[in-house]
Specification:
By secondary structure, the chain is an all-alpha fold. It has 9 helices and no strands.
C-alpha cells in the first residue's frame, strides 16, 4: 500500500496533540506555554532538512554512475564477464568526471541546490508535515526538547491522544490501516 505521506511518523504530526503534550509537565522537563511556539519549533525542525533534500535532488539529477556492484551484474556470471562489466562502469564514471573542475562544479552545484531549496521552501511552507522526514523530525524534536519519556512512548502517547480526540489525522490513518488489513 502506498501512503500519502513520507512515512508513518508523518501521520503523527498533529498540531493540536503535540503542543498539548509538550505543555504537559509529565511529558517534558520544561513545559512550553504557547502552542504557536511549539508549531514554529516543529516547522523549523522540518525546514532544517531542506538543504539535504535539495542537494540530494540536484545531485541525483546529475545521474553519475554508481561504483557499487548490483546483484544482477554478477549473479551467475564468470569473473571475466564481471570484470568487463565493472570496468565499463568505471569507464563511464571516468568519462562523467574527467572534465570536472572543482571550483566550477561546486559553484554550479551550490547555485542549483540553492535554487532547488528556494523552490522546495514554497512547497514545504504548506506541505512540510507531509513531505519532511517524520522519523527525523521526531529524532530532532527529542534532541531539542527534554522529554521525560522516550520517543517511542511519546509517539504512543500521540497515537492515544489522536484516538481519544478522533483527530482528522487519526481517522485518516485508521481508514488507511483498515484498508490495508482488509
Amino acid at each position: 500500500m502506498q501512503w500519502d505521506r513520507r512515512c508513518l511518523e508523518n501521520y503523527l504530526i498533529d498540531l493540536d496533540i503535540i503542543p498539548n503534550l509538550l505543555m504537559d509537565s509529565e511529558i517534558v522537563n520544561t513545559p512550553y506555554t504557547n502552542h504557536g511556539e511549539i508549531i514554529k519549533l516543529l516547522k523549523d525542525l522540518a525546514f532544517r532538512q531542506l538543504d539535504e533534500v535539495a542537494t540530494r535532488k540536484v545531485y541525483q539529477s546529475y545521474a553519475f554512475e554508481s561504483t557499487g556492484i548490483k546483484k544482477d551484474e554478477i549473479k551467475g556470471k564468470p569473473i571475466t564477464e564481471i570484470s568487463a562489466a565493472l570496468f565499463t562502469k568505471i569507464h563511464i564514471i571516468q568519462t562523467q568526471i574527467s572534465h570536472l573542475n572543482e571550483f566550477e562544479w561546486k559553484n554550479k552545484f551550490e547555485a542549483e541546490a540553492t535554487q532547488e531549496r528556494l523552490r522546495l521552501e514554497n512547497i514545504w511552507d504548506v506541505k512540510w508535515m507531509i513531505d519532511c522526514d517524520g522519523k527525523r523530525l521526531f529524532e530532532d524534536l527529542q534532541s531539542s526538547v527534554q522529554l521525560k519519556i522516550n520517543i517511542r512512548r511519546f509517539k504512543t502517547r500521540i497515537i492515544k491522544e489522536m484516538a481519544i480526540n478522533q483527530s482528522e489525522l487519526w481517522t485518516t490513518t485508521q481508514a488507511l490501516l483498515e484498508k490495508l488489513i482488509g
